[in-house]
């Protein structure tokens, strides 16, 4: 299930969304490089080259992620970040291993898995540019379906981080899980006690796939949570607004590191590592 690991330090585990692979999470490298976290990128069963575990429901996928995190972190601390569908798995892991989890983040997180019940904004394109769509070539359909900003920068990021996972996905596995898509965890309901570690939940205001209202409704569950709804961003919020998301992620990780120090003085965090250490 682990696709790639970079750096050293406390594990920061990244879980991608439905129909893509771990490469959609690789913009984190530019956001957190040098911050002293070991980035662990997970590929879910439909990803190109991944093993089909036979998981029949999103719950089974989330449980597999939980087992992987237990292997990676052992009894030690970790932080976890999930995108879209992966946000459900990340929240499940963070709540199940709350004593160890020093931070939880989601990017365009799916808080409501029943697509018919989501509160969604209308489809809206803020920057329309036919020249950019022509540059997309054969990828025009996939790009245009999600993009809020038809800019060359957004297109190139999409081609680098998103499109390979879309094109490489195992459609048979996706179809099997799509048929049981609502059989998923609702961590805030199943663990009613507030999640007290630092949290970050970032949404695109123009996200017509999962929206932002369902996520904001969970704000009371996260007393140390930052909730941000970014204008000029759709479902690929960290692709379309990398600078804003990067600043929010760095702030979250700093809070998570400080929280880890208070929770366990012996915890190795970025602040406790040698100032000469580099990733």
What report would you give on this structure?
By secondary structure, this protein is of the alpha/beta class. It has helices at residues 28-32, 58-73, 85-96, 130-136, 140-146, 152-168, 171-178, 187-190, 213-216, 237-240, 242-263, and strands at 2-6, 10-15, 37-42, 78-83, 101-107, 199-204, 225-230. Strands 1-3-2-4-5-6-7 form a 7-stranded mixed beta sheet, with helices on both faces. α2 crosses α3 (85-96). The longest helix has 22 residues, at 242-263. 44% of the residues are buried. Residues 265-279 have low confidence and may be disordered.
In whole angstroms, the N-to-C terminal distance is 23 Å
Count of DSSP strands? 7
Strand-and-helix sequence, N→C?
Answer: EEHEHEHEHHHHHEHEHH
Uncertain segments? 265-279
Largest sheet: 7 strands, mixed
Q: Give the DSSP E fraction (strand runs of 2 or more residues).
A: 15-25%
Question: What structural class is derived from the secondary structure elements?
Answer: alpha/beta
| Average pLDDT over all residues | 93
Q: Could you estimate the helical fraction of the residues in percent? A: 25-40%
What characteristics describe this protein?
alpha/beta; 7-stranded mixed beta sheet; 279 residues; disordered C terminus
Give a brief rundown of this model.
By secondary structure, this protein is an alpha/beta fold. It has helices spanning 28-32, 58-73, 85-96, 130-136, 140-146, 152-168, 171-178, 187-190, 213-216, 237-240, 242-263; strands at 2-6, 10-15, 37-42, 78-83, 101-107, 199-204, 225-230. The protein has a seven-stranded mixed beta sheet with strand order 1-3-2-4-5-6-7, with helices on both faces.
């Amino acid at each position: 299930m682990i696709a790639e690991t970079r750096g050293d330090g406390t594990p920061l585990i990244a879980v991608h969304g439905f129909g893509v692979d771990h490469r959609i999470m690789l913009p984190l490298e530019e956001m957190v490089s040098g911050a002293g976290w070991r980035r662990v990128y997970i590929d879910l069963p439909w990803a190109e080259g991944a093993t089909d575990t036979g998981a029949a429901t999103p719950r089974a996928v989330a449980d597999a992620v939980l087992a992987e995190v237990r292997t990676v972190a052992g009894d030690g601390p970790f932080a976890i970040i999930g995108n879209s569908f992966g946000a459900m798995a990340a929240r499940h892991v963070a709540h199940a291993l709350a004593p160890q989890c020093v931070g939880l983040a989601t990017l365009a997180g799916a808080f409501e898995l029943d697509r018919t019940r989501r509160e969604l904004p209308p489809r809206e394109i803020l920057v329309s540019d036919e020249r950019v769509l022509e540059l997309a070539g054969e990828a025009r359909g996939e790009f245009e379906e999600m993009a809020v900003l038809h800019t060359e920068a957004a297109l190139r990021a999409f081609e680098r981080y998103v499109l390979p996972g879309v094109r490489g996905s195992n459609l048979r596995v996706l179809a099997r899980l799509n048929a049981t898509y609502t059989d998923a965890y609702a961590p805030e309901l199943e663990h009613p006690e507030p999640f007290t570690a630092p949290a970050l939940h970032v949404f695109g205001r123009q996200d017509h796939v999962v929206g932002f209202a369902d996520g904001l409704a969970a704000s009371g569950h996260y007393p140390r949570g930052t909730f941000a709804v970014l204008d000029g961003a759709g479902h690929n919020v960290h692709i379309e607004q990398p600078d804003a998301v990067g600043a929010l992620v760095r702030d979250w990780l700093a809070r998570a590191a400080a929280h880890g120090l208070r929770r366990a003085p012996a915890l190795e965090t970025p602040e406790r590592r040698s100032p000469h250490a580099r990733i």
